[in-house]
Amino acid sequence: MRHPLLEELVAKHRPDTKDGKVADYISALSRQDPSLLGIATVTPNQKVMYGGDAPTVSFTLQSISKVISLVLALMDHGEETVFSQVGMEPTGDPFNSLYKLEMMSPPKPLNPMINAGAMVVSSLVKGSGVEDRVGRLLDLVRAMADNPEIEVDEEVFRSEYETAHRNRSIAYFLKEYDQIDDVEETLQVYVRQCAIRVTCEDLARIGLSLAQYGRSVTGEQIIPQSIARLVKTFMVTCGMYNASGEFAIRVGIPAKSGVSGGILASVPGKMGIGIFSPALDDKGNSRAGVRLLQSLSQAWQLSIF
Amino acid sequence: MRHPLLEELVAKHRPDTKDGKVADYISALSRQDPSLLGIATVTPNQKVMYGGDAPTVSFTLQSISKVISLVLALMDHGEETVFSQVGMEPTGDPFNSLYKLEMMSPPKPLNPMINAGAMVVSSLVKGSGVEDRVGRLLDLVRAMADNPEIEVDEEVFRSEYETAHRNRSIAYFLKEYDQIDDVEETLQVYVRQCAIRVTCEDLARIGLSLAQYGRSVTGEQIIPQSIARLVKTFMVTCGMYNASGEFAIRVGIPAKSGVSGGILASVPGKMGIGIFSPALDDKGNSRAGVRLLQSLSQAWQLSIF
Amino acid sequence: MRHPLLEELVAKHRPDTKDGKVADYISALSRQDPSLLGIATVTPNQKVMYGGDAPTVSFTLQSISKVISLVLALMDHGEETVFSQVGMEPTGDPFNSLYKLEMMSPPKPLNPMINAGAMVVSSLVKGSGVEDRVGRLLDLVRAMADNPEIEVDEEVFRSEYETAHRNRSIAYFLKEYDQIDDVEETLQVYVRQCAIRVTCEDLARIGLSLAQYGRSVTGEQIIPQSIARLVKTFMVTCGMYNASGEFAIRVGIPAKSGVSGGILASVPGKMGIGIFSPALDDKGNSRAGVRLLQSLSQAWQLSIF
Amino acid sequence: MRHPLLEELVAKHRPDTKDGKVADYISALSRQDPSLLGIATVTPNQKVMYGGDAPTVSFTLQSISKVISLVLALMDHGEETVFSQVGMEPTGDPFNSLYKLEMMSPPKPLNPMINAGAMVVSSLVKGSGVEDRVGRLLDLVRAMADNPEIEVDEEVFRSEYETAHRNRSIAYFLKEYDQIDDVEETLQVYVRQCAIRVTCEDLARIGLSLAQYGRSVTGEQIIPQSIARLVKTFMVTCGMYNASGEFAIRVGIPAKSGVSGGILASVPGKMGIGIFSPALDDKGNSRAGVRLLQSLSQAWQLSIF
Fold first, then answer.
1. Which helix or strand (DSSP H or E) is residue C186 part of?
2. D93 interfaces chain B, CB cutoff of 8 Å
3. Distance CA B241, CA B258 (A)
4. Which of C90, C242, C254 lies nearest to residue D305, judging by beta carbons?
5. Do D259 and D283 contact (CB within 8 A), yes or no?
6. Which member of A5, A285, B82, D68 lies 3.0 to 4.6 Å from A257 by CB, making a disulfide possible if both were Cys?
7. Is pLDDT of D99 > 80?
8. From the candidates A249, A267, A301, which should be mutated to test the interface with B, based on the most B CB atoms within 10 A?
9. Which reaction does it catalyse (chains A, B, C, D) (predicted)?
10. How far is CA C283 from CA A89, A127, A186, C246, C294, in A?
11. Contacts A168 to C, Cβ<8 Å
12. H-helix or E-strand containing D131?
């Protein structure tokens, strides 16, 4: 159902899309229409509200998938194992940075939301081979979104995989210290999880399942409560790349962005939100998407602080 | 009033004090008894509860004062001016680090909770001279704590001022780029605010005034609501030095620690908490204090996530 | 011919081999006898002198090959092209460091003696395919050493290639900025040049051809004079990893070391020197080899300073 | 005596002064005429040759003084003590960088030619108080230059001392680790040694005394041979800031520059050279001065490589 306030806010922030730039280093992403802007929200009563282009657009998860793989790795191994291999601290560095790793001996990625940490996490997802492991990630995404149709976009996958030089560099760096076992398999899993295609409504339902402490929209406890709480914390401290601090102050909602232009947001106890607008700011977050969420947070008093 | 659960948790975590070490680089701090552990809580109905040594100990704010000076600088100048001079992003680096500053041109401290950022903030507190500016900081602390007796501990001030080589190094670094005007005056203000002496109950009331969005225990709106919200966000993303991420996950309460062993915590809408235990972990946070707060957060479900 | 002083110095410094450690991260190297120590010198009159194990040992070039590939890339493309892609400055960082690259935009390896720079240089060596390019490097080594028998040790190559994670990480990092075209081909060339097997006498003759400003022992001008001078400069400023400064002070001879334990030294106008002793110090230089060369430099007044 | 080749080279390189910029961060330096260019050379037979403005200009040593204070500290304490407090390695970082220090525990300046290392060295110069220590430095400069008239320019000293924020920052950083005892006294000595005023001829004679392994123009052994050799090594590996590598390749002469535009050069066994031209390149070296020295090195075959 279209919601008047959401429509109004989309109209207000549509011009902000002009201040951003579509990611151009992944060819499959670079062809997206920069003026798109859509939002979906879903509340515990399962009511879905739309604004703007939400009903008609789909996009790939990209870094938003780091939240999913973290959930699954934690369910597979528990906190202790996962956090023995990746840290919990935010970092003021770009998501693809290597130098803090170089300063440590042995290196340990600072958190699961930067690429180094996310690849270690992906390498922890259980399964026999790439297909099985990606299948398990897909199953979780489908359960959280209550949508069995969700698939990997193979074209986006191939486009990214061919040019994943920096991620391959990071992965081989970690391999030297045995922090990743099979680099190419890990990259296959990681780039595929990034290429999972969703809609704003899917994201909103995923956000709600975290907001409901692991219960999906259908009421099933698909993720342990403690893990749902934990990933929301990471979304606050490092979900929006190295603009997470400012986002926490201006918006105050646990959220995770991807370079496709998607934003997953989860208001504890209250609501899941999915946003899409592919024109990015210089930190890699959706320009209009962030501002739309800020306006919504103020209008509906959604800040957790 | 002593509270059974608080007493029980103090008893449970008193042994943790043995895992920590009293800060030894400030001689006035190094003489503290490492086995001390106390907690005070205060709720909107003004009921104060104690556990352990809370009623009998006092200590200096140290880095906790960064919250106070940030509030005052924001009240003096507004967000735009303050954040043109200091950033909003957490950093994976130690509190006294210089190298991220060196990488930027011009340097801008990443956030107001690291020393570089805190000194810039202190330099922004209005007033004619050191005495006037420290007086204004004291007035704010007293109002937030509803305690007109709070004072600067001059002995601690002198001890720290004489050995403030690293902070002086940071301040002169910033001076080169005109980000601090008068280095020695700024240091005088900064080190004095660190030496403000409080009790656990004072901290709890300060925490409550932030938890009540700027209203003190007496109900007066002493801080604008938006500023009270903003500083709590910083407390989550960077209040516990470079262990803030882990603290957010394990405890989930906006908090700020100091090397004296104090912790100021503020549970939005619910409660202010003051803790003291001078034996520190290797990140500079009170060892037993953090664990006590974690147990309390679980027992009373205080996490914001 | 065995030389009394060389024998004496070998005897004096043989015990120093106990202070070092054979490189263990390359399995083919880790099996070397740590107590070996040999030296060969050759003067413009072609007289070869030996000390210690020189006549009986052979070893792979490893980083010493960076001198050879730099010579060939300069002969293939000229200074301007080569130094548009790699810098001329020494660095205080380890040879496999990435972080200075990350600080630059676009990254440019600081010099051709660190791994990042050496791989860019190897990618510049002309030839159609790995075999041809390695063949050209081998031809140059054979001409400089006046020894057509010199070959690549395929076992060492395979052993290193399989575990070249860090170099692969560096190469993919550079690939992202188009500074290396074909990563796997470059690695094949680079690791093969490292696995060229030589003797102390080979190294001494190679050193003499540089000392004679590009003329080999047979008198042929196989390298342009300006290039022979240029690579000796790099040997002084960055030939001994991040111990080059100390080596310049203590020894004062252009030299290049490898983790196999070899040292190539070239005394301008006077002499070529080849040393082998596989027990390394913590910077990756031959422990006894460096000390032997220091004693020899003092005895024969070989410092260029 | 004016020398035709020197005059010719000055004429050739005078236009290069337009590519540079006079240092503007020290007000006393910013007023220098950017078009000045002068050179003096002196050979063991004491014959002094001039070119350009050499006979009429004077200027302050600035970083060239780091060579003098290193000589004196080595004469005062010996190599072992000095190099326990400052390293011998070149660094790819700017002269006023702090971040490598921060990475070490405890920090040790990488070499005596960067500011951090030079201040540690100045703090080692013996003497009772600033005046005595500066007096001893002046005595050494006068002996090396065979010119008892050389003095500190007090106006330049005061101008630099007032704005020495970055050096003060570095000094307090080192003070925290007890690597400098009295910060303000060390800064007084350091900034005064930078303000010693000389001519091109003075520099040439200083260079000759190093070229003659410590014997001054008058034949007196004023510096031990080993120390004269040692400082020339530093001049090659780190004498020209972070352009030292390129300078070694292009020019091949031990040299030390200062931001005043002076260059001290010393050709082992052959010649001392003093150059002045205040327009600097972006690394802080005299633009025309470096090019003039490069032309002279080629013309007279002065490279040590």
1. helix C183-194
2. no
3. 9
4. C254
5. no
6. A285
7. no
8. A249
9. L-glutamine + H2O = L-glutamate + NH4(+)
10. 32, 42, 33, 11, 17
11. 168, 172
12. helix D129-145
pLDDT at B92 over 90: no
Active-site residue flag, B191: no
Residue A161 is a catalytic residue: no
CA atoms within 13 A on the CB side of B300: 18
Q: Residue C235 corresponds to which tokens in the numbers above?
A: 């040997």
C-alpha span between A205 and A189 (Å, rounded): 23
Task: Give the span between the Cα atoms of C186 and C198, in whole angstroms.
Answer: 22
For C102, which of A97, A165, A183 is closest by C-beta distance?
A: A97
Given the residues B50, B57, B66, B191, the one annotated as active site: B66
At C253 the pLDDT is 97
pLDDT in tens, C266-287: 999 999 999 999 999 999 999 9
Nearest to B42 by CA among B170, B159, B204: B204
- Does the CB of B168 have a partner CB in chain D at under 8 Å? yes
Could you tell me if C32 and C280 are in contact, meaning their C-beta atoms sit under 8 angstroms apart?
Answer: no
Question: What subunits touch chain A, counting only 3 or more CB pairs under 8 A?
Answer: B, C
Label residue D12 left, alpha or beta by phi (over 0 means left) and psi (-120 to 50 means alpha): alpha
- Cβ atoms of A28 and A188 closer than 8 Å: no
What φ, ψ does residue B46 adopt, rounded to 5°? Answer: 70, 10
D274 half-sphere exposure, CB direction, 13 A CA radius: 31
Interface check for C110 against chain D (CB to CB < 8 A): the answer is yes
- Quote the CA–CA distance of C197 and C193 in Å, as a whole number: 9
Among B260, B299, B297, B265, which Cα is nearest to B280's? B260
Chain D partners within 8 Å of C233 (Cβ): 245, 248-249, 252, 305
Interface test with A, best of C168, C174, C179, C186 (most A CBs within 10 A): C168
What order of strands is seen across the sheet that includes strand B48-52?
B48-52, B38-42, B271-276, B262-267, B255-257
In chain A, beta strands by DSSP E: 21-22, 38-42, 48-52, 58-60, 151-152, 196-199, 255-257, 262-267, 271-276, 279-280
What pLDDT score does A91 carry? 86
Beta strand segments in C129-224, E: 151-152, 196-199
**C111–D contact, CB cutoff 8 A:** yes
Please report the pLDDT score of residue A115 as a whole number: 95
C-alpha torsion C22→C24→C28→C34, nearest 10:
20
Q: Is C241 left (phi over 0), alpha (psi -120 to 50) or beta?
A: left
Does any CB of chain A come closer than 8 Å to the CB of residue C105? no
Tokens of D17: 């002064």
Residues tagged in the binding site annotation of B for substrate:
63, 115, 160, 167, 190, 241, 259
Going by C-beta distance under 8 Å and a sequence separation of 6 or more, which residues neighbour residue A78? none
- Which pLDDT tens digit goes with each residue over C69-79? 999 999 999 99
Residue D1 vs residue A142, higher pLDDT: A142
- With CA atoms as reference, report the closest residue to D167 among D152, D180, D151: D180
Give strand pairing partners of C256: C264
Distance CA D276, CA D22 (A): 12
- Read off the pLDDT of each residue in A75-90 and give the average, rounded to a whole number: 96
Name the residue among B274, B230, B241 with its Cα closest to residue B72: B230
